[in-house]
Amino acid sequence: MYAVWVKIDRTLPWIELEGTYQTEREARKAAKDFLKTVEVRIVKVGVKHKPLKAVVTAKR
User: Does 57 have pLDDT greater than 80?
Assistant: First the structure.
């Protein structure tokens, strides 16, 4: 029995596909079919902020 795990990016966890397969060939075919039909939607893109440099003066 073979299970299929897919890793999209190193920042994301592994994703296990549903089902088990009798042979490694069937598992590879299932993984390829899954990757061919993946639909990706970008929901939100965050803006990377640059750190601010500030000069502080203290008056007494």
Answer: no
Distance from C-alpha of 13 to C-alpha of 8, rounded to nearest angstrom? 8
- 8 A C-beta contact, residue 54 and residue 47: no
Q: Which domain holds residue 26?
A: 1-60
Residues listed for the chain: 60
On whether the CB atoms of residues 22 and 1 are closer than 8 A, the answer is yes
> How far apart (Å, rounded) are the C-alpha atoms in residues 25 and 34?
14
Give the pLDDT confidence of 18-39 residue by residue, as tens digits: 889 999 999 999 999 988 988 8
Q: How many domains does the chain have?
A: 1
What is the maximal distance between C-alpha atoms in the chain?
A: 79
Q: Are 21 and 2 in contact (CB under 8 A)?
A: yes
